[in-house]
Amino acid sequence: MGTDDGLWRAEEYPFEMEDAERVLDCGRTTQVEDLAHADGIVVASSAGAFRSYDDGESWEPMEIPKGDRYWVEGDDIVFSVHASPDGTLYAGTNQPLIQRSYDDGESWHELDGFKDLPSMTHWESPEDPKRARIRNITTPPNKPNRLVVAVEVGGVHYSDDGGDTWVDCRANLVEDDVHQVLPLTEDCWLAATGYFDLDLEHVGLQTGLGHATGWGGLYRTTDAGETWRRLDPGNEYSYIRKVFTHDGTVFFSGAIGAPPAWDKNEHEAALFESTNFGRSWEEVDFPGAPTQVVEDWVVTDDGDLLCGSGLFDIPNTRDDVDGLIMRRTADGAYERVGTLPSSVGRMEFV
Questions:
Q1: DSSP labels for 225-245?
Q2: CA-CA distance, 42 to 93, in Å (whole number)?
Q3: What is the pLDDT of residue 132?
Q4: CB-CB contact of 27 with 45 (8 Å)
Q5: Which residues, at least 6 apart from 77, have a Cβ–Cβ distance to it below 8 Å?
Q6: What are phi and psi of 306, to 5 degrees?
Q7: Terminal Cα distance for the chain, rounded
Q8: How far apart are CA 17 and CA 199, in angstroms?
Q9: Are 146 and 138 in contact (CB under 8 A)?
Q10: Burial of 243 (0-12, 13-18, 19+ CB in 10 A)
C-alpha cells in the first residue's frame, strides 16, 4: 500500500493499524505495481524508484535518470514505470521526459522523439510551473508496440513504435489535466481528468493561466484518442484521479474542488459505479465519505475487490487523516478492513 508516508504492507486483512508494517521509507508513493511483463514489483516515489524481486521483502533502487532542470524548484522524481510485452522498461518523470531500457534497467536512454511533441511547450503542472508529470504509461491490449501516456498537465499521447515517434493528441481532449489513461481495447481508452481551480489564493504565483481550467471528469475514446466523449456529464465530483473496471463494473471516485481545497476540508468527495459502461452512474456510500477520495483498487486472488482512500498527494500532507482500506462485499456495500496512519494512494496484491 503506497501512501504519503512510504510503502506499507499487511500480511492479511482485516488488519489493525499496528499490524501493518512500513517496508519502504520513500515518502509519497506514486506507483506500486507487480509488473506483468518483467520480473519484480516496482515502486515509484518522491524518494526514487525501487524494485523488489522477493515479494517486497527487500528493495533496491532502479537508478533511473531523473534529470536536473535547474530553473525548477524541488527534486525531479520518477512518477511511473512500465514494462511493455517484450520486456522493455519505460519510466516517466516530471521533467517531463520518458526513459527507456532494453536491458531490464541496467542502462537507460531518453526518448528524444517524445520531446518533439508540438504541444509540450504548453504543458504545465499547477504546483510546478513549466513542469508536467508523466502520470502513467501503458500498453493497450493486442498492440504490443503501442505506448499511451497520461500527462498532468499535458493530455494523452501515444506511440506506435515503442516510443521512437509520437502522436500528439492534446488538442483532441478538452481536459489536459490527465491523471490516468486506462486502455480497455486497442482503441478504446478511459481517461481520468482533473482541473486547476482559478479561485485559489495562490493563482497569482502561476506563470501560465491557460491550462487545466476546465471541468475535469471521466472521458472515453473509441478511436485511439482522435475523439473523446465525457461519460459523466453534469457530475460535480469531477476532479478524478483514477478509474477502474472489474467484472462488468466501472468505478471512479471524484471530488468537488481541486487538491488545495482538500488541505482545508473545503471539498466533498463521492464514489460512483456503473454497470452499463457509463451510460448511467450510481453514487455509493463508503466508510471514508464524504471527505476521503478513493485513489486505487485491486482484486485479490480470492476475488475480493479492495480499495484505498484518504486525501493523497495534496500540497500539504494531511497528517491528521488516516488511510482506509475497504472491501466491496457481495451485495455491493463497502466495509473497512484496514487503517494506515497516512492517506492511501496506490495498492497492489502480491
A1: TS--EESSTT-S--EEEEEEE
A2: 15
A3: 86
A4: yes
A5: 30, 44, 45, 46, 48, 66, 93, 94
A6: -110, 150
A7: 11
A8: 37
A9: no
A10: buried
Per-residue pLDDT of the chain (350 residues; tens, 9 = 90+): 999 999 999 999 999 999 999 999 999 999 999 999 999 999 999 899 999 999 999 999 999 987 665 444 456 789 999 999 999 999 999 888 999 999 999 999 999 999 999 998 888 766 665 678 999 999 999 999 999 999 998 999 999 999 999 999 999 998 889 999 999 999 999 999 998 765 444 444 444 444 556 789 999 999 999 999 999 999 999 999 999 999 999 999 999 999 989 999 999 999 999 999 999 999 999 999 999 999 999 999 999 999 999 999 998 899 999 999 999 999 999 999 999 999 999 999 99
**Look-up of cell digits 526518448:** 111
CA distance 205 to 142: 44
User: What is the pLDDT at residue 179?
Assistant: 96
pLDDT value of position 207 = 46
Cα dihedral 49, 252, 96, 123 in deg (nearest 10): -170
Whole-number Å distance between alpha carbons of 250 and 240:
13
Q: Is there a contact between 101 and 108 (Cβ–Cβ < 8 Å)? A: yes
**Amino acid found at 258:** A
Closest among 207, 209, 211, 206 to 193, alpha carbons compared: 211
Distance CA 273, CA 218 (A): 12
| Class of domain 11-295 (CATH, top level) | mainly beta
Place of cell 519484480: 40
DSSP-derived secondary structure letter, 201: G
Q: Render 319-335 in DSSP notation, one character per residue.
A: TT--EEEEEE-TTS-EE
Distance CA 121, CA 84 (A): 28
* C-alpha 204 chain-centroid distance: 27
Torsion of CA 308, 311, 312, 314, to 10 degrees: 170
- CB atoms near residue 218 (< 10 Å): 25
